[in-house]
Specification:
- There is one protein chain.
- This protein is an alpha/beta fold.
- The chain has a domain of 144 residues: Rossmann fold (3-Layer(aba) Sandwich), CATH 3.40.50.
- The protein has 16 helices and 12 strands.
- α3 links the parallel β3 and β4.
Amino acid sequence: MKRISILGSTGSVGRSTLAVVDAFPDDLRVVGLAAGGNIALLAEQVERYRPELVSVRSADDVERLRAMVGGPINIVCGPEGASEIAAMSSADAVIAAIVGAAGIPPVHAALKAGKRVGIANKEVLVAAGDVMTRAARENGGEILPVDSEHNAVHQALRCGVHPEVQRIILTASGGPFLRRDLSTFGNITIEAALAHPTWKMGNKISIDSATMMNKGLEVIEAHHLFSQPVDAIDILIHPQSIVHSMVEFVDGSIIAQLSTTDMKFPIQYALLYPDRVTAPFGRLDLAKIRTLDFFPVDPGRFPAVGLAYAACRAGGSMPAVLNAANEIAVERFLAGELPFTGIVDMVSRVLDRHAGKVSPIDTVDDALHWDTWARNEARGIDVAVRR
């Protein structure tokens, strides 16, 4: 029986994780839950799974949750509470799905406690990849990717050893604007940008998919997860989203991982690894798919990808700045303050301002410092990029 804690239990990844727990009641048990503002859903989860410890956002939320749950319950709150959930001694593994920089301290706490961490939060490795991998290495922790692309790479890498890897190939759907006339990009609406053709996701990641910044961030993640140089990590557009990623080995063999577009697959893999267990989830029918298409990324259509590669090559604090600036740019687009094309313009301007300030990220505080700096810079950019 593996005991798990979930950081971000009321979000989409958290809910999918609990669906995996439901599918394997003899193998998995929930001992810790951390969530944000959705106290009503958290209360339902607490009633059903009866964890040993629960974390909420604030002291007020403690009382709200306690009033909704029958029987005794141990509740902590705030950033410290999330880190306590992550490091609790009774947990064997942690699913990390808290969105944004708030996910950095608890993941670090889990790795310092020697936990297996199934990581679904891009910001953690983009902003503090060296810090996290060092914490895992020095304390016996383990990072297993829950993002479908990196999870696919992890599976493919089981077919060889590190010196045999030629390159990693991440696949991308291309989002809703893969074939849209470039001359109309300035007129893209919020509704159109949120309409992803394949995956059902939250607003932030849906916009990142539309700009393909999500794929650029995944390149940086892959660099840290798999110890590969950035120029050995490629991206291919694959609209069907069936091949989640590939690994090419030095002999020319390419190993691909395929499955339906369901987050329960990579979550199950991360929780039960190295075992493969029969699952009740949907299976892929290749005969119905018939065609799988692949083609290169057009840098003129998706300039965010080039920014991410450049940030990864620069290293140090530049990826943390890229990520934070993008979060604010997306926030401002969703608020109607920026045109769609203004997202990448804003990020580029913040990166230019940081070019002479790049410094190493040696600690969690370093990552959080530059995250805050970039957010403030992006918030301060004026009407030059507004509608």
